[in-house]
Amino acid sequence: MAALIVGMSAAMPALAAEPAAAADPWQRPATAPRGAPNIILILLDDVGFGAPGAFGGPVATPVFDGLADQGLRFNQFHTTAVCSPTRAALLTGRNQHRVNFAIASGSEVAQPGYTGIWPKSTASVADVLRRSGYSTAAFGKWHNTPNWEASPAGPFDRWPTGLGFEYFYGFMAGEADQWAPILYRNTVIAPTPARPGYHFTADIADDATGWLHTHQALTPDKPYFLYFAPGATHAPHQVPREWIEKYRGRFDQGWDRLREEIFARQKKLGVVPKDAKLTPRPAELPSWDSRSPEERRLYARQMEVYAAFLAHTDHEIGRVIDAARKAPDGDNLMVIYIMGDNGGSAEGGMNGSDHNLADIFYGLGADDVKTQLARADELGSDALDNHFAIPWAWATNTPFQWTKQIASHLGGIRNPMVISWPGRIADKGALRPQFAHVNDIAPTIYELTGVTPPEAVDGVPQKSFDGVSFAATLTGKPVVQPHRTQYFEMFGNRAIYRDGWMASARHSLPWQLAGRSLSVDDDKWELYDLTRDFSQATDLAAKYPERLAELKALFLKEAEQNDVLPMVTNIGFDTTKPSLEAGRTEFVFHRDGAPIPSLTGAPLLFGPHRITARITVPAGGADGTIISNGAREGGFALFVQDGRLVYQNNVGGKHWDEIRSAQPLAPGVHDLTFELTARGPDAIGRLSVDGTLVGETRIAKLALPSYLGALCVGRTCGTPAGRGYAAPFVYPGAIEFVRITRDPPRR
Fold first, then answer.
1. What values do phi and psi take at 52, rounded to 5?
2. 543 pLDDT more than 80
3. Are 142 and 168 in contact (CB under 8 A)?
4. Is there a contact between 684 and 699 (Cβ–Cβ < 8 Å)?
5. CA–CA dist 446, 241 (Å, integer)
6. 226-244 pLDDT per residue, tens
7. Cβ atoms 170, 211 nearer than 8 A
8. Which long-range contacts (CB under 8 A, 24 or more apart) does 512-520 make?
9. How many CB atoms within 10 Å of residue 333?
10. 568-597 in b/e burial notation, b at 16+ Cβ within 10 A?
11. Which ranges in 418-567 belong to alpha helices (H)?
């Protein structure tokens, strides 16, 4: 569904390109069009339509709100329902499947549209701007590189620095521990700064500000494109305690009443029409009144933490914008602030979770309310990996149905956006109600900067754009809504929009995995007239069956043209994917090697294996990590504590196997061995020192290392996979090598 970039209104000042110059013997870089703006593009994670203050939400977001007052609010802006696909569409101007990001990175499937391999035929907006005279930088979450290419070994052509960003500081995975993230600077692991009160969002705000100051000092006349994508508010919800305390008691009324309060404010602010309807709570979600007093106390605290996380993030973003505005060319700054890459997330379980990744990966089930409530005061801290209860996600998506992952309904795909550009936006504080999609951003940037995207990049012809520039709406003049078609699809949840009408078919729910394998042919289609039904509340399928049939046929046509079919309805593990560890039986690691983020190339140890290490114990003894892989949500650790050798197997931070030698290690050189003898419930783990058995235990279930962590030798990276010690727990003696061998895979 290629679309032309809509011509810009004559009322918008033209950006004149520099005249062509004779060949430069010094090969100076390209010069941007005269007057091209500096651009800060902000994308938050897992934020619902009804969360921020400017859209009636309960969270104080003064930076977002202030930009809305200075610029424009867009209340019919759409994403793709999941993070990686939204980011791919945002940065290319193409539909998610045409960039091979049908689903989140890490869930790739070997079929066109689903491989997670960013094609060279869809150059990023950063790459095009860089080639046109812009400086470019990215900060925060990336999550658009396949796992097998996301290790310190590369290849790096599909990393941010290979896709047009001259500088990158952040993490490569889908989420990160905000207190102890595994960080990269460009393509090199960067140690987490060791300072009291460290927090990732504040860290990237500091780094972005420093980058801006360097740019201003050296190239003040060169425009820049800064992409700022915090991990917030994706789980884990982690934030300084003083921010949480600001929201104590603010959510005791529960999710049903909160929806009503948000909806009333939305109507007062005008971000929803006066005749809009508040969609009812689905039968699959419990009412607040049906919950026990203990449940309500826990759930209210979960939402307090989430609100604090969002408020803190908005504050840190404000510091970056302030630094940019104070620059000599600060008035020529365009800020595009997108509040969420999809709707609020329903991936935390019906009771929420304080070990969310563990609950997902290990299938252990969330801890009961009593257990979680005992730890409620630690929510948001560096002790837990917490997420809120599903109904809070639904509440933050007011007034719409459903949540993240559900691309068939607006709760999963409609997000707030504001754009500010002082001196250029004529209608400050106004609302822009026309349909817009995340794939419109890149074409809009091209038009506003005066940059013409090339037909070929490095000799590779470029795919046509699917997005449509909405630059003309910044003039404040009425804009006739062009004919517009846009499909949506995620895990079989699908919809088609055409000129105000939307046909929707929900296939599954994020928390009901069993239903995903059912045939999509059995899904019920609904029909909505969004020109009269802003919140998608009234199903007109029975009233207009012919129109529904037309839209269903249109969806199939768009799906065929965009590599959507066959739809992948479940998250599986494709064993044909490339891997740095699959098929190998031996791995050797050294302490001067880079940390290896878990699940990007470190060996997965699910059967018989052996870990051997040669270390030197200095005179007087020494404690510390020999090797560790994972984080507090799961993994293993071999370490010395109180002079004794210890092996721990951590299953989801909930079940622990431990072997500890009775005697301390004597000074000198030692060969250490942990060996798992079998697979399954009969497996025995044995720990030896210099060939002598020092302990053994049954290990019925081996840990999958949490991808919030990393494999490290001689120190713990991120949070400890073992318990009873604190990171980094550096071993001060020599470690000659650590070798892991495992049995060949079963055939």
1. -75, 155
2. yes
3. yes
4. yes
5. 42
6. 999 999 999 999 999 999 9
7. no
8. 513/570, 516/491, 516/492, 516/569, 516/570, 517/569, 517/570, 518/569, 520/492, 520/494, 520/567, 520/569
9. 22
10. bbeeeeeeebeebbeeeeebebebeeebbb
11. 441-449, 545-561
Q: Is the pTM of this model over 0.85?
A: yes
> What is the bridge-based pairing of β-strands 167-171 and 525-529?
unpaired
Helical segments of 354-479, H only: 356-362, 369-374, 390-396, 410-413, 441-449
Report the C-alpha gap between 67 and 398 in whole angstroms.
Answer: 22
* CB 72, CB 427: distance < 8 Å: yes
Helix (H) / strand (E) containing 267: helix 254-269
Closest CA to 144 of 258, 71, 227: 227
Tokens of 191: 């140690």
The predicted structure's pLDDT at residue 679: 82
> What's the pLDDT at 367?
75
Per-residue buried b or exposed e for 514-530, using 16+ beta carbons within 10 Å of the residue's own CB = eebeeebeebebbbbeb
Is pLDDT above 60 for 221? yes
Contact 536, 273 (CB under 8 A): no
User: In this structure, are strands 224-229 and 38-43 parallel, antiparallel, or unpaired?
Assistant: parallel
Contact between 634 and 706 under an 8 Å Cβ cutoff? The reply is: yes
Give the DSSP letter string of 60-127. Answer: --HHHHHHHHHSEEEEEEE--SSHHHHHHHHHHSS-GGGGT-SS-TT---SSTT-S----TTS--HHH
For residue 4, give both structure tokens.
Answer: 């032309």
Mean pLDDT to the nearest integer, 89-115: 96
CA distance 742 to 608: 6
DSSP string of 304-336?
Answer: HHHHHHHHHHHHHHHHHHHHHHTSTTGGGEEEE
Q: What is the pLDDT of residue 18?
A: 47
- Environment class of residue 666 by beta-carbon count within 10 Å: exposed (0-12), middle (13-18) or buried (19+)? exposed
* Distance (Å, whole) CA 445 – CA 124: 12
Q: Cβ(716)–Cβ(598) under 8 Å?
A: no
Q: What is the dihedral of CA 704, 709, 715, 720, to 10 degrees?
A: -70
Q: 196: closest CA among 238, 244, 236, 240?
A: 240
- Cα gap 448→134, rounded to integer Å: 14
Beta bridge partners of 650: 635, 656
User: Which residues is 697 bridged to in the sheet?
Assistant: 685
